[in-house]
Amino acid sequence: MQRDGGVSLVRMALGSFAAAAAGAVMGFAASSALAADTVAHTTAGPSDEAWMKAWPAKAKADGLGGRAAMRCKASAAGVVSDCVVIHEYPSAAGFGQALLPLAPDFRVAPATHDGKPVDSEVVLIGDWFVFDKAADWLRKPTAQDLLAVFPREAYAKGRSGAATIECVVGLQGALFDCFVVSEEHPEDHFGAAALALTPQFLMRPASRGGKPVLSLVRIPVAFKSMGPVQLDPDARQAVSPARVWDAAPSYADVVAAYPAKAKAARTGGRATLFCDVFADGHLTNCTTVTEQPFGGGFASAARRLAEKFRIDTSVANQKALRHTNLQLPFTFDPSMLDGKAVVGRPLWADLPSDDDVLAAFATAPKNVGTVRVLLACAVQQGGWVSGCAVQSETPPGKGFGPAALALSAKFKVNTWTNEGLPVVGGEVNIPIRFETGEPAAAAPAKP
Fold it and tell me: Any residues with CB less than 8 A from the CB of 49 and at least 6 apart, and which?
């Protein structure tokens, strides 16, 4: 149970293919980014009071939780310095800037090499998710699930490994916005394998005052090998469903496939399918992995929607496709029935380059400080955005909004999310930040 007024990070253990809630702890964590005998790790962090004080004012007033991660230098003396924000959710909500000033409050045990402390890097993570009942498991991966994503080369050579991932638990209990906190043997890609498992996870969301709220989970995943094996040349590896599909179901498609009884009762549900990729890019041989609630018609609806997916089958992708299958999640949220775009966290597949940004703002005023523009755009098949409109711009009236609109053609988003929600037909917000240089100092007042 979380302390009243505190901020909490729930750590879920997933060892030997089992999982259990380990309780709520302070909202920070760390992992070393450099090789060492032992990695740098946090021994203490900011107080609950410091976390609450750092909560971005607008987000707090709106009841919005979030998280951020920063990469810092960790000296052999355990001193943290030179931190840079590397991740923030939701984007542009201020959580990254809120975390940076807390760096001096962290205490880090340094990494060691040959038994001696050494300089290294550390990733410090803070979150501002508040709840009175933690998320809990509804379905955990099986041994067969882990085998399906076991890194191919490591499996063949009999190498074991582990990774820890951190995810946001959505209001429907699906995991999203996951990233790798730490992993053993990065060259074997156990982190990517753990991420590929996330469609198999299903949780009962955290709640506050009886209503579901977002929360955070940290999940260690262990891959245990029994020794070297001869690989089946036709064996397939699972890949992430969050990608740019040549074609993917739209919001309208998901609403049309919504089970009739569930639609009438306005109840939600989830299903995960396991599918092969056919030579022409369509999905085939789809079988049900999970359905919640069981027998609610959501698995059948998911199979109908699976027929609408088509993956890139270019020559460059042919070899990878020969050893590919997908664990494909689907989330049916009753708020979709009202025409509301229930967007998960879209992942950007392509973004403007530095040169693109400089060209777009080339004729804009200089030396006016930080420019912020928020665009709202519709997502098309293939992940491109269109119909963009300026929602806000700071400073206003100086041409930064139109300049940002010119960049919209450079954005491309994955067309399905790890939560199992559509993106095509939905609306995404694009926050753009541009530094024009510090404003010129005002002339001193004449005496």
Answer: none
> Hey, what CATH class is 9-223 in?
alpha beta
Segment holding 81, helix H or strand E: strand 80-89
In CATH, the number for domain 348-435 is 3.30.1150
Q: Count the residues in the chain.
A: 447
Inform me whether the pLDDT recorded for 222 exceeds 70. yes
**Mean pLDDT in residue range 425-435:** 87
Fold equal for 9-223 and 348-435: no
CA–CA distance, 98 with 106 (Å, rounded to integer): 14
Best CA proximity match to 332, nearest among 264, 263, 286: 263
Which residue do the tokens 């995960």 mark? 272
Contact assessment for residue 149 and residue 179, using Cβ atoms and an 8 Å cutoff: no
What's the rounded Cα separation, in Å, for the pair 74 and 178?
24
**E strands, 240-356, where?**
269-277, 283-292, 324-332, 348-350
Q: Structural domain boundaries of the chain? A: 9-223, 237-338, 348-435
pLDDT category of residue 19 using cuts at 50, 70 and 90: very low
Confidence of residue 317 (pLDDT cuts 50, 70, 90): low
224 vs 17, 273, 370, CA distance in Å?
Answer: 10, 25, 49
What amino acid occupies position 33? Answer: A
DSSP secondary structure code for residue 418 in this structure:
T
Class at the top of the CATH hierarchy for domain 237-338: alpha beta
User: Which range has the worst mean pLDDT, 123-132, 344-353, 387-396?
Assistant: 344-353
CA 403 to chain CA centroid, nearest Å = 29
Continuous H helices in 79-202: 95-99, 143-149, 152-157, 190-196
For the segment 207-211, the average pLDDT, to the nearest whole number, is: 89
Do the beta carbons of residue 46 and residue 113 sit within 8 Å? no
